[in-house]
Amino acid sequence: MKSKNACGSRERERERESRNLRKIEEREGLYSKNRPLFICTTKLTQGKVINDNAGNILKMQISIKNNSKKSILNAVSGITLIALVVTIVVLLILASVSITVVFGDNGILELAKEAGEKTNQASEDDQRQIARMNALLHKETWIYTTEDEKNIPIPAGFAPTQISGENRVDGGLVITDEKGNEFVWIAVPKNDEIYKLTTVNATNFDDNFYTNIENDLKKYVKDYRDERGDFSDECLEDCQLDRDEYITLKNSMLKSIYVNGGFWIGRYEVGYEGEVRYKENNNWSEEVDKNPVIKEGAYPLNYISYVQAQKLSNSMIYGEYEGSLMFGIQWDLVCKFIEVNNGKTKDEIKNDSMSWGNCRNSIFNIAKGKYSVNDGETFTEVIGSYEKGAYEAGKGVLLTTGATKRNSALNIYDLVGNLNEFSLEMRLSTLVGGVISLNLRGGDYQKAGDKCFAHKGDISYGASYGNVGFRVTLIPCDR
């Protein structure tokens, strides 16, 4: 049995050791009054581990006498470096996630852009509805001052949309009636450079006056007429139109261009709404459709003869203005209007229009509307998007009106491709077999881009095809 003196000696030795240790801690700045006294220690080769009564490690001392500060700093530095590396890794992960969330296909920016586009579209739709209501207020032709300070005659029953991008003459001024039929103003400058045979202040509107106006305008647009040979705005025998009415209509068109400095044309090709009505190699009967529309998203009105097309055009009456097929000189003036206002280059208009038309070899995407691969017999609605490929379906794809802004210039849609369009321009010489023909303008979805805009197609008076339709112009007429 150990003596009490021996036990007492060990206890005193522990107390001395504890006091010495406390002095070291105080000197090193490690002592805390709230920490319990160390009861026992475990010796190491290079230092000492201090435990409490439960065996928990409270402190590790290594080379306390000489290197305690350096060792503690090294230990802390090691831990700090590891924490820094871990923090950087976490931040990189968060950064990559953030970039994906912000910039990804379905990221915040893309969603914000989409939301902005939908908001703008909703705003435009609201403005269009307001314009349609305003159209009801105008019972007579009235003068409207545009954003670029031009005074333009607006037909009765119409109002400008006043939407951004549609309220300037040099950008394509757009008007709408109460039903949503839309027209674009084609400006023709009135100056001495154009009217050399006719003075700019002429008041005597006789036959010589009309001849001079037409010749002046032909020189102004000569770049778009030189290749057309023997086509002219003349009503020949057997043209199936009243010759006197044709001449009166033509003179009214020329006078209006001279006096008003331009004319109105349909923003879209003429179409129809409702169910698809397909007539292969068969003319439309007069009872089929008496309400043609000039709206986005309509089925293009094809398989129709030019006589029927003119009758349907004439049914669009707005006060003193009456609808008609476009004359050849009007088509040329539209080309010139697009060129001088930088809508498209002369080469894009005259030589190859693949880049802005629905031509056979065009490649583009549409996100709305419908398309047909069988000349309009059936149409498929676009869900999400549809890529129209080159030479798709062998002979091309027919689209509903205004399917994509790509196929437009200065707010005029489908002037290139989609459907050939009847004009009142006739061929002076007969075709083989003595057949008198009309000139088709604009090309169609079955032709390549270099055959679209400058295309000079022939069609006999009574014929109708799936790739031929028409566009309406509004002409003020005395009744």
Tell me what you see in this structure.
The protein is an alpha+beta fold. It folds into 2 domains: 4-62, no CATH class; 179-476, no CATH class. It has 8 helices and 26 strands. The protein has helices at residues 4-28, 64-103, 108-135, 207-220, 243-260, 306-314, 328-340, 346-350, and strands at residues 40-43, 47-51, 57-62, 142-145, 151-154, 158-160, 174-177, 182-187, 231-232, 262-266, 271-272, 299-300, 317-318, 321-325, 364-366, 370-372, 380-381, 386-388, 398-399, 408-409, 412-413, 420-427, 437-441, 457-460, 468-469, 472-476. The strands form 8 sheets. Strands 6-7-8-10-26-14-13 form a 7-stranded antiparallel β-sheet. Helix 4 (207-220) crosses helix 7 (328-340). Mean pLDDT is 81; it is low at 35-47 and 52-69.
Task: Please give the share of residues in helix.
Answer: 25-40%
Percent in strands: 15-25%
Q: Which structural class matches the secondary elements?
A: alpha+beta
Taking the sheet with the most strands, its summary is: 7 strands, antiparallel
Number of helices: 8
Total number of β-strand segments? Answer: 26
Distance, first to last CA = 142 Å
Low-confidence stretches: 35-47, 52-69
Q: Which value, in Å, is the CA radius of gyration? A: 42 Å
Kindly give the count of domains: 2
Averaged pLDDT: 81
Describe the strand arrangement of the main beta sheet, using strand numbers: 6-7-8-10-26-14-13
Shape: elongated
